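Morning!

This is the sequence you dropped in the shared folder:
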Amino acid sequence: MSSSKEKLSSPSPHGHHHSHGYNSRSVEVDLASFCIFNSTLGPKEGEESKKILLYFPSDVIMDAQIRHVGLLEAVTKFVSSFSDKNCGSMQTSQQLHVTYQPEEDFWMAMTFNLIHAAEQAEYRAEENDRLKNEQVPEEIYHAALRRSYAMYSLLNGTFSIDGMELGINRFKAQLHGFFSDYFQRTSTGYANLMQHFAALTYLPMDRKNFFGVQSFMNMLTLRFREVKHVLLQYAGLIIWSDIDLSEAVTASHYITKFLHPDVSENEMQAIHSSSHPHQTAGVRLGRYYDGPADHFAATKNSSSASSRAYLRTGGDPNSVHMTRYRLLIYGTAGALITLFLEDSEAHETDYLTRLETFLEPSLGSLALSLADQYTRFRNPQWSQDSSHVKYLYINEATLAQKQTLVDKTQVVQVDFLKALIGIYEDVKSHNDFVEIYEKVFRDCWIYGKRTFDRSLYAIVTQRNIDLVLAEEELRKVYLKEFPDSHEAMT
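The structure's back. Tokens below.
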């Protein structure tokens, strides 16, 4: 049992990820290449280079790129003959190829070199052969590809419509600018594994705060009819969202992890430094935050606080048609509000000033009313710190999650989470009800349960415990942590 905190890596031959197995024998996963291609753009012999829209590392000679993309095309055709899913993979003793088709004719792919740990040489030859064939959980890398495309489409639109309309050269430049920056800022490996469960963490609200939020939203949309969609967060937790849930996951991740990951904490320190936060000398709690123009550099430029973002038309997550909006992000008193406005050049200085005049006092007042509830949320009476049970609970109808798998420093217990992936995939394949226990490592039980749209995944690490005692530990945690959901999960 071990922990790992993975550094951010870029898609180059020098970016490494360490994949820890269920024992001490590990496989080093080296991200060798990342590419995006469209086979319809170069269907004839001699035109193969035209199908390659992006290839990292970019210093690889074109002939080598063409051969590699040709191999990936063969992988996609081979996998599609067995499955209609838009994700595929092929693993050999030395490489792992992972592909994802986000749109018709467009493919994204990662290739990893599998480097087995030196200590394996101490084992018998047949043992080494078995280890070389051990499957690396490609679901993690499928999730990484899906996340990267979701972030790209949020800020740039689709490949097939918004991208191709730019012209092929500008489209390639946009892809290069976005993904080179994106992979410098994020990780594709196990330290990012919690995003495999793509869900949202909501701040629980009492009746008073719930109606306060409703009142604020009504006033906002009545006074500023250009506002079409809103995402409201407090200290990184979801308060309100009227966009598609999967897009809310991407937008929330962008804002809290990439745009200003420490903004809420800094603002809240200012809040708690005075009993009258809005009167704190020298502290201006409310301000606009720069949008995507300063992040994931592409072909955009913006001198104002607003930039553009894209949402699926009609809220359909499978649609390739996206609506473009002006994106405004404003923060005050620990709250961040993301506004999707109708796309117009009119939203400049006068409009921003009028909007801020409304937001600073009203949003600030709302945020302060949520402060006590946030404190209770962060410091529950019963803490999991001393428990042998770590869990992840997901309500799939709302994508709401509650979890104790990742600690406050975001250090992921890699071996545990890797083992949990297998249970997650098994549970997800059942539509109604399933319950699975599996013993892994020496003193660890992995648990997964699904009842309709509610799922619970847990790890029990208590020593010398059998199945009956593990089940009793889980029951105690569930009754304490999810009293309102108990009947729905039984």
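Headline: The mean pLDDT is 75.

More detail when I'm at my desk.
O.
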